[in-house]
Design a protein that fits this description.
The chain has 6 helices and 8 strands; from the N terminus they run ββββαββββααααα. It is an alpha+beta fold. It folds into 2 domains: about 80 residues, Lipocalin (Beta Barrel), CATH 2.40.128; about 120 residues, no CATH class. The chain has a 4-stranded antiparallel beta sheet. A 4-stranded antiparallel beta sheet has the order 5-6-7-8. The chain is elongated.
Length: about 210
Amino acid sequence: MPRQSYSLEENGPKRLEVSWKGIWKKFTVTLDGNVIGTMEGQKELKKGREYPLPDGSLLKVQLVQKLAAVELQVLRDGKPLPGSASDPEQRFKTAYQIIFFIAGLNLVLGLISELLEVEFLLSLGLGIGSVFFGLVFLGLGFWVRTGSLVGLILTIIIFGFDGGLGFYFAIDAGYEPGLGGIFARIILLIPMIQGVGAIRELEKKERLA
């Protein structure tokens, strides 16, 4: 049974827990070990539900469609709980983790392809170029982790441009680009794009602090 725990304020104890079965079934919201609400399935969860908390604040839980993905929003008085999917800090963290994932994947597959001469991987265009691409993204990942908005935007442009080139060359060579690869690239792009807004929110928060 998937479950996630959150604190109600920054650096506070994780008092709130949400859990569910399968694909968003039997969704349960618990505060300090006591059940404060349930939702039967995805349809009800997408509508969202509000729960008054003992301190007078209002908790809202809703499953929101975000392009090709869904996001579980857990808000207290309209603001995301720390560590929840819509929390700017969490979105920022996810963005640079995705960049490190892309870097690692290219490095590993590129090295395996070159050192072991795996024909299948070589036929996919993986090789020394992938290793170079992985090193570039590794550097970009460390840059973005410092909070660089420029670094993140540059990463998105490079990743999108690389996908566009791959699409063009596949068509030019007479191949039909796989929809799975295109979909996977979109899935990886979405958290990075969300990271742009997250960095801006965090910068604004710092200025107001």
